[in-house]
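Chapter summary example: a protein plus zinc ion.
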Amino acid sequence: MSGDETDNKTPVLMYHEVLDVVERERSVRAMVPLYCLSAHQFRQQMDYLRRHEYGTVTMEDLGAADREEPSTMVGITFDDGLVGNYRFAFPILGEFGFNATVFLVVSRIGNDPRFLDWGQVAEMSAAGILIGSHTMTHRPLETIASDEVFNELHESKSIIEDRIGRPVKHLSLPHGSANDRVLETAREVGYSTICTSDIGTAIRGVNPSVIERIPIVDKDDLRRFARIVELDSRVIRKLARVKRLKSRVKRMIGIETYRKLYRLLFRIRPGHTHGVSRRS
Ligand SMILES: [Zn+2]
C-alpha cells in the first residue's frame, strides 16, 4: 500500500463467513469470531456499496493484463468455502447484483457440514460467482515439501474444474503463507492470480499477479467499512502495521504455536483456526 496514492486502486475485501448466528454468540466456537459476520452486517455493507455506486470485480477481471481500475470498483473474496457463503452471502450478493470470488478448501467440500457442498458450489458458479482454490487441506504452503505444494495446488485446481466445468485460475494462500518456490509452483500449475493475506491494494507481478487484500471483520461498523473501501490511508496503514507485527510474532514463535495461542484465546475447538483445520 503506497500511502495516499489511492486513485485507481481497487480494494479487494477478504471475507470468511456470513451467518445468522455469529461465532461470537456461541460458547464453543468453530472459527475465530472476528471472521464471521452476521447476514445483517453483510447486507448493510453491500447496501453501502450500492448507495455509493460501487461495482464489483472478480479476480478474473483484476488479473486481466489491460485492466481498468476505476476507483469505484471493489473486489469481494471469501476464503475457505464455508456454508454461509451459499446460505447467506450468495443471496445477498444476488440481491445487489454483485459478484464475488470464493476460494475453496477442497478436501472439506461436501465432507464437513460447516463447508459448502459441490451442489452449492456448482450453483454459485453457474450464477457467475468465480470459484478459486484455497488448496486441498489449508496447510501453510511455506512449511511443506515441494511435491506436497504441487499436489495442494494442482489437485485442488483439477477437482474444482471437474466439478464446475470451468477453468480454475485463481488461488488464495492458506494463512497467507508463501515463498518464491510456492509462487513459482502456482505459476507452473496455471494460476494467474494469487491472493495473499497481506494488507493493501497492490498488485505485484504479471503472471501470476499477487493480490493484497483487506480483511473485513465482525468489529467493522459501517463507518469503518466506508473508510476501508475509500482506502483511507490511516486505516489501511494501521491494518498493515498490525499485520506486520502478527507476521513477526508468527515467525518468532512458529506458525503452529501461534495457531494454538489463537485457539486458546478464542476458545476454538482444537484443530481449527479460522474455520478450517488441517487434515489430521
Ligand atoms: Zn483460509
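Key point: The CA atoms of residues 199 and 243 lie 7 Å apart.
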